[in-house]
Amino acid sequence: RKKVTIQTLHALRQSKTPITMITAYDYPTALACSSSTLTDITLVGDSLAQVCLGYPSTTKLTIDEMIHHSRAVSRGNTHPLLVADMPFGSYHVSVEDAIRNAVRMVREGGAEAVKLEGGKEISDIVRRLTEVGIPVMAHVGLLPQRHAALSGYRVQGRSVDGAQKVLSDALALQRAGAFSVVVEAVPQELGRYATERLSIPTIGIGAGPGTSGQVLVLDDIMGTWSGHKAKFVRRFANLKEVRDNGVQKYAEGVRDGSFPDPATESYSMDPELWEKFL
Ligand code: KIV
Ligand code: NA
């Protein structure tokens, strides 16, 4: 498949073809995301923190860690547009600092676009990044980087004021130049309405079927994540069972001596040479 561009995403939105986005964290998961011609976007999500690095939340992730993993993803990613999350704290200090860090994400991390969490309050940063040629994907609704301020991971935009805030934030970010927006954990009515009001593609996660596309964390799709399973997660495979079974079978084989097989899984020496050696 030809490389997916921002223009491709707009065309998919226009034709009401749901956009597909999956997270990746390293070279093998990037190959997985690129293995189907139906995938449009690979996201190096900062869920990297929990899923891959064992941190309790995304706020622990550094920009150096993100770049290290993003580079690995970029070596395996083929046709999908490669977007990477800017980690917590890497775009909050000043516009200059945000640009410096976003440039690193592109030059060192191989990202083709960056994703930033937040509403109107980050629109100046989104505008400047866009102006210097770094495409920005916005992220509204539930903002995991602010789990402490939000007192946990909860559905957003369920009140009249809350819904208005999600919509006006998304509109402000579109005006600031964002090429797309992730909408996380909001009522499906709001997911659909925001999608109708915006002219850029919306990518939903827990936002119902009415958005321009969907994103899920790869480990949730594969059933390898054993932590909390959100309402919006569907496990499309059960790799954890397959994986743990492989480990168990291998360990059993070693223990009982059935692995390795001397005839097919071992090297042999010429008997005459072996005699000489002895
Ligand atoms: O970090 C992440 O994985 C994300 C997506 C799930 C939207 O931001
Ligand atoms: Na994220």
TrEMBL record:
Catalytic activity field: (6R)-5,10-methylene-5,6,7,8-tetrahydrofolate + 3-methyl-2-oxobutanoate + H2O = 2-dehydropantoate + (6S)-5,6,7,8-tetrahydrofolate
GO molecular function terms attached to this record: 3-methyl-2-oxobutanoate hydroxymethyltransferase activity; magnesium ion binding; methyltransferase activity
Name of the featured protein: 3-methyl-2-oxobutanoate hydroxymethyltransferase
Pfam families documented for this protein: Pantoate_transf
Purpose of the protein: Catalyzes the reversible reaction in which hydroxymethyl group from 5,10-methylenetetrahydrofolate is transferred onto alpha-ketoisovalerate to form ketopantoate.
GO cellular component terms attached to this protein's record: mitochondrion
Entry's family note: Belongs to the PanB family.
